[in-house]
Amino acid sequence: MEGHSVTRVALLACGSFNPITNMHLRMFELARDHLEDTVGNYRVVKGIISPVGDGYKKKGLIEACHRVEMARLATESSDWITVDAWESLQPEWVETAKVVRHHYQKLAAVEQNNDDVDTVKFAKKRRIEENCHQGSSHQRSRDSPQLMLLCGADVLESFGVPNLWKQEDIAEIVGRFGLICITRCGNEPQKFIHQSDALWKHRKNIHVVHEWVTNDISATHVRRALRRGRSVRYLLPDAVVHYIQDHELYSAESEQKNADVILAPLQRYAGASSS
Fold first, then answer.
1. What is the Cβ-side half-sphere exposure of residue 269, based on CA atoms within 13 angstroms?
2. In b/e form, how buried is each residue of 152-187, taking b as 16+ CB within 10 angstroms?
3. Are 216 and 241 in contact (CB under 8 A)?
4. Structure pTM?
5. Cα–Cα distance, 124 to 252 (Å, whole number)
6. Are 94 and 87 in contact (CB under 8 A)?
7. How far apart are CA 31 and CA 267, in angstroms?
8. Mean pLDDT along residues 256-261
9. In which element (H, E) is residue 7 found?
């Protein structure tokens, strides 16, 4: 393995997280295992959860402050998965491509700050000794991690829903950054990639991960159980269950929130395409 180039990767998951479930967290672990063990030339250094803002206007979407806090509670025990509130704090819905760009720039800025510190230290060291192999190792530290969007197969297939995504955003996300897709029951991501010219063009940037331990936990099922007074323990982290109970979240009333409102991307893109 000497001389083998390993690319550092940060995984970004965008979505409602309404609420965050154990399956959301499991996706990060599956993706890391796949990239590091199956693919082999990647090292996953960070996972980022970015809950969508209230401006998304999805039916049953509770306030972002609660969804962000539940995500933070869910990741307290993780030493590599973090929660970022930037997207959730925006007054209007932000396209996923812009969110990916934001996090890429943020990672690059952190890396640059680290490099600035390293450069000063390195310059001082170089004045007192020659290091014949410093060039390649120092240059490697300047490379910011590659950012990949982590999603389920349902998100991948949503690329085909009219007016839900801009085609140029799909091309940028998949072509420039890359996608890692976790399969769920009833989804056929490989078939969808084959049927989509846009995805087929960038198929080498799409990693499909099969979850062989069938687990169909969904936030929709969890909300249904909650509003019916059923237990959701072991579907969510205990801290999240307690938070939901303490704040009396997810009722029949909350599920009707935004019921008569058109989803933000459909409002934006349908209007643009008809003008």
1. 16
2. bbebbbebeeebebbeebbebbbeebbbbbbbbeeb
3. no
4. 0.87
5. 64
6. yes
7. 33
8. 96
9. strand 7-15
